[in-house]
Amino acid sequence: MRDIQGYTMNFGPQHPAAHGVLRLVLEMEGEVIRAIDPHIGLLHRATEKLAEQRIFNQSIGYMDRLDYVSMMVNEHAYVMAIEKLLGITPPPRALWIRTMYDELTRITNHLMWLGAHGLDIGAMTVFLYCFREREDIMDMYEAVSGARMHASYYRPGGVYRDLPDRMPQYQPSKFRSKKELDKLNEARSGTLLDFIEDFIDRFPKAVDEYETLLTDNRIWKQRTVGIGVVSPERALNLGFSGPMLRGSGIAWDLRKKQPYAMYDQVDFDIPVGTNGDCYDRYLVRVEEMRQSARIVKQCVQWLRANPGPVMLDDHKITPPRRVEMKGDMESLIHHFKLATEGYIVPEGEVYAAVEQPKGEFGIYLVSDGANKPYRIKIRASGFAHLAAIDEICRGHMLADLVSVIGTLDIVFGEIDR
Amino acid sequence: MSEKLRKLAEKVEARFGDTLTRLPSLSFELSYEVPAGKLREVCVALRDEEDFRFEQLMDLCGVDFLTYGRDEWVTEDATDTGFSRGVARELPKSEPNYDRRFAVVYHLMSITHNWRLRLKTFCGAGEPPMVPTVTDIWNSANWFEREAFDMFGILFEGHPDMRRILTDYGFVGYPFRKDFPISGHVEVRYDPEKGRVVYQPVTIEPRTLVPRVIRRDHRYMDRMLTQADNIAPEALQTSREKSGNA
Q: Distance between CA atoms of B29 and B18, rounded to whole angstroms?
């Protein structure tokens, strides 16, 4: 047989399986990968530097754009860091709303991941199924913040506003029959909470549907079982977190171990894998969606029963209500100061971490007592995961690389920042 | 400070003694400064010893303290001429022997004991700033150190692959340093004559919409003092003076 020469191959940055702008330089030996050198940074926007030039609240919107499929969870970490330095705690209703939206976000993220991962290795249908449910969560985002993706909904001291009493409905148009319209609006006839509850009730069935397509699917298993195995020791040393760590059999979840918001009040389980391969991580994430639905259900029940403020009343930090501003001198001054100068955050440093759908997302915030942060470091979970791709893929076939990229659940908004 | 964190602090201080200096921190965090020369020794001990078990390095980042504590607008004196929106943008000169400009911050986490620790090490005077690598202790440090090098120009001695990571191919300068302007030095545009994209000096100037303001807010005056409860106020004062922002 003739000798096959090893060669270098370029993958991306415009490859559909590269999940954004990933460029890999692959050292191949036939069809076997010998080494990978990822080139990242094509989406680098210097978010951390930009945040240094702006007052604290102006950077909340940047956080949405980091991991742009789990928007509100990123905001949560940033807002938490500021709150910790200020020494304030938002009212309980705000924390419950945050818990609920964090979990809804986890579901959207996992739906996006499952759809794209499936599509990468040949399962077209599951992509369409996932986007069907994802659409409803986008509507929930829109109902509460006005934006379908980049919400800027969490603020230091609470959330921007309370949940709306009416869920927006579809309007009649010449493209939709009356019957179709009524069907679409059926779940949207009540409040936002009604809509969320309705969604959560039908969501487990939808997850069953995805599972019938994939879990016992022969092709799916051939592509994922035994691919990209990471041992627990290596996972720790490589700085893995989230499902990547749990897939390797380590029961670690910040929501349980270092609870924030209202996670110590809700009941849920942490799924853990055994083999640390792509298939186990798939199972972990699917189960996480079910657990998230469980948490959302509990949040809905609490939020129904307990109305209350969703923002702190301390107008040195949170803006006063517009109505008050019209007649009250004090409120007008507060608003003016917040709009022109912002609030100052006392000198110090803090690291605030949340369990983002992808892993640990942390904000290291250094303040020198000014109205702008002195330094922000964003700890993106995907950064550590992608750094390990060389080690995970060595010795695998080229086609398995696509499975591994899928299972890492990488989004370049947060890796490049 | 919680009981657990107090226990960790006691253990750390008993084990490392004077090697580590306690830094002021919020009550739920623990933060130490470690001299660059002892960094690796301390890290190996923190990772391997039963009492600490910091298996994970969650984050590593550089910080540039060049303009720490500097504001752009006088807030303490009154003026009889009115305020100006103009902001003077003069950077303090970086003194060559000033050894506390660049710091590298490590965030460690232990899954066994469920606690976190922050280590800070200053790079010392001179250009380029340098600290030893911890890549062989925690492999996750590899890319984090490359990022710190890319953004701040901090060299990690012994790193296996010290290349830039986030900036463009052929990028010049260290963008996250405080003396690097937000608008950068070059911009790109398409040159129809040459038929390709060319680099040219930037045509925009950075401007400030909201000036940077530091206020001594009485509500926060003693927050750090009371919360870091086993640091005496004098110790905090000296640590502030040491870092040059008293």
A: 20
Report the SS3 class of residue A116: helix
Least confident of A111-115, A152-156, B161-165, B242-246: B242-246
* Beta carbons of A364 and B61 less than 8 Å apart: yes
**Contact check, Cβ <8 Å, B64/A387:** no
- Specify whether the CB–CB gap between A88 and A312 falls below 8 A: yes
Residue from A36, A40, A368 whose CB has the most chain B CBs within 10 Å, to mutate: A368
A and B: number of Cβ contacts within 8 A: 131
| A348 Cα to chain B: minimum distance (Å) | 7
Distance CA B42, CA A389 (A): 29
Within 10 angstroms of residue A204's Cβ, the number of other Cβ atoms is: 13
Angle at A324 between CA A321 and CA A329, to 5 degrees: 120
| Amino acid, single-letter form, for residue A269 | D
A264 touches chain B (CB under 8 A): no
* Both structure tokens of A59: 């950077």
- Record the pTM: 0.89
CB atoms closer than 10 angstroms to residue B77: 5
pLDDT in tens, A194-204: 999 999 999 99
* Residues in A touching B243 (Cβ below 8 Å): none
What is the distance between the alpha carbons of residues B14 and A58, in angstroms, rounded to a whole number?
44
Cα three-residue angle A161-A166-A169, rounded to 5 degrees: 120
How distant is the Cα of B201 from the closest Cα of chain A, in angstroms?
Answer: 19
- For the four alpha carbons of A63, A64, A68 and A73, in that order, the dihedral sign comes to positive
pLDDT in tens, A309-346: 999 988 889 999 888 888 899 999 999 989 888 898 98
| Beta-carbon separation of B166 and A416 below 8 A | yes
Amino acid at B233: P
Instruction: Name, in order, each residue with C-beta under 8 angstroms of B177's C-beta and a sequence gap of 6 or more.
Output: B64, B66, B151, B152, B153
Give the pairing of strands A23-29 and A7-11.
antiparallel
Whole-number pLDDT of residue A293 = 93
In eight-state DSSP terms, residue A370 is B
Contacts of A370 in chain B (CB under 8 A): 71, 212-214
Q: Which chain A residue's Cα is nearest to B228? A: A348
d(CA B67, CA B179): 9
- Which one-letter DSSP state was computed for residue A5? P
Residues of A in contact with B53 (CB under 8 A): none
> Alpha carbon of B191 to those of B172, B187, B204: distances in Å?
21, 12, 18
